[in-house]
Amino acid sequence: MLGCPRGWFLRVALTSAFLRRQDQRARILVARPAPRARSQAPGSLKRFLGYLKMEMTEMTSVSLKRGSAAIEDNDSVAPAEEAKRQKVSGCCPATGQDGLENSSLPSSEKVPGPPETAGQGKENSEVLSEEEEEEDGLSEEGEEEEEAESFADMMKHGLTELDVGITKFVSSHQGFSGILKERYSDFVVHEIGRDGRISHLSDLSVPVDEEDPSEDVFTVLTAEEKQRLEELQLFKNKETSVAIEVIEDTKEKRTIIHQAIKSLFPGLETKTEDREGKKYIVAYHAAGKKALANPRKHSWPKSRGSYCHFVLYKENKDTMDAINLLSKYLRVKPNIFSYMGTKDKRAITVQEIAVLKITAQRLAHLNKCLMNFKLGNFSYQKNPLKLGELQGNHFTVVLRNITGTDNQVEQAMNSLKEIGFINYYGMQRFGTTAVPTYQVGRAILQNSWTEVMDLILKPRSGAEKGYLVKCREEWAKTKDPAAALRKLPVKRCVEGQLLRGLSKYGMKNIVSAFGIIPRNNRLMYIHSYQSYVWNNMVSKRIDEYGLKPVPGDLVLKGATATFIEEDDVNNYSIHDVVMPLPGFDVIYPKHKISEAYREMLTADNLDIDNMRHKIRDYSLSGAYRKIIIRPQNVSWEVVAYDDPKIPLFNTDVDNLEGKPPPVFASEGKYRALKMDFSLPPSTYATMAIREVLKMDTSIKNQTQLNTTWLR
């Protein structure tokens, strides 16, 4: 494809085929539970959230994310009520943030590469080498097949909701079953921007700009010339310049070649030379390696805003990976991109992105190269986007093959609309392996660094990716970080980074070795512990006092927490009540739950009165989080259908292509519940769905109940 680096088309096609196979495996059955007490979490759902990286809608700098991103903490951006967060507060990137926050767990997951710093411009911002990229690509397909065979065994050692304090429901309706994310297109997330508007991809046109180069810049260079220029730009050979002969020597032709090189290969400068009576355009580096992808100030019109904002529509890819891919196609560093929150992989997501000094014309050209991506709604603006600026996310979710009667569905959805759901941190926050992330976080807070190292590197119960098993076995046998590292084909996972650190700093300096792991991923562990404490305390609070405010509860006035007094209790509802994530800058309720916090932290050898750590990064100031969330813009309908493969609503791309919306018969073989609702940042859509279906969302529970499905 013109304008696309050589080899990319094949890679994208192979990736697409891999994702389609993954999609076919991702059926998630939510089985109807037997009636139980409200305090229990019944139900079953096939491999629910195995692909449930849907959670955490996003990750932000001040709240828990592959990182991202969490994926998914409803975009994981810190909510308004959590404004009083510590500098590294409350919910750092952990995993797909709801909505999808990308990435649940550090362990045995790839640590986000360059994109993790997107919009920040600090560490890890170099484009990965071709070699690293191919290495990762080769390992993924084998891993997927291995995972399919061993997933059930692995999940026998996973967590249940009970393990992380998720035990209560707020509604009394009877649960029913359904299939969540039978197709990734059954889960769609639209970002709600700073102005409160829901982001939609509605326009693929490019703003008219007289200073844009012509379309000829994308076709004037041959594939061989583009390859040579790319190798020069990325310092892949010893050439210091590349000369391109001007066949049809006219000023216009030379101008187009100059524009093409500067536009498509940032960091290169050009000049015209006469050689033996022929004209050549010579490309070269103007300022060494620092010139790579740094936007040239002189080439950007002063009248145009420095940032091109656009809406990114993507299917089955998280925000971090998407930005990595865009940066590679554009040949720029990922840290020139910015966004308000990360979106998860297994979904269709629509969000706003900003990029520094890349024209809308270049971005629009990517629509011809990329599969499962669309870029549009371009505009030039003066400022980038910032993590946490979004107001939330709007979800469109289809639960297929539901068993509930119309009356049951009506009761469940009315309860969600009027009362809401408990604002638990979802299962993705705590990991999918035998070693929960909160255990690592607890060891960090205890300053038990040998335990931190062992928890991350020791052999684990159950099956996991083959190369990780070999790495852990080597570590257990030799305690040689270099030998264990050689067993890892993918070095960017948390295990690989820690082993690199141990090789560099030695076994007596685990703190520095651990510090090699990107900061957001390190903080994810301690935020996971905070979330674990919060979930348990909220369950105790509801068990003790029910769904009404009581004297001694906390509410927020602005960013300040205050106690509800006896004579003031009628002025508040349960939707006003907040509870603290433990830290040195929060207060605790003035009732029994305060002592419960103290007892839980004491049992974990932590001092609730001194949450400062010897290492500043790991000092927790704490935050506040509402205990009940009432979704906004709630609507639903039950539709009948016969073919499980047909889409049950139109996406933005369908609408752009003029596809008519699906028409449903009055009767069909199956019934589906289509839900629409909006959530604030840092809330989990899976917890809302849990309340509707009355199910246990843990992968372990669903796998044990549905092992035949995996055979």
TrEMBL record:
GO terms for cellular component: nucleus. One of its GO terms (biological process) is tRNA processing. Its main location: nucleus. Keywords: Isomerase, mRNA processing, mRNA splicing, Nucleus, Phosphoprotein, tRNA processing. It catalyses: uridine(13) in tRNA = pseudouridine(13) in tRNA; a uridine in mRNA = a pseudouridine in mRNA; a uridine in tRNA = a pseudouridine in tRNA. It is found in: Nucleus. Interacts with SIRT1. Pseudouridylate synthase that catalyzes pseudouridylation of RNAs. Acts as a regulator of protein synthesis in embryonic stem cells by mediating pseudouridylation of RNA fragments derived from tRNAs (tRFs): pseudouridylated tRFs inhibit translation by targeting the translation initiation complex. Also catalyzes pseudouridylation of mRNAs: mediates pseudouridylation of mRNAs with the consensus sequence 5'-UGUAG-3'. Acts as a regulator of pre-mRNA splicing by mediating pseudouridylation of pre-mRNAs at locations associated with alternatively spliced regions. This is Pseudouridylate synthase 7 homolog. The lineage of its organism: Eukaryota, Metazoa, Chordata, Craniata, Vertebrata.
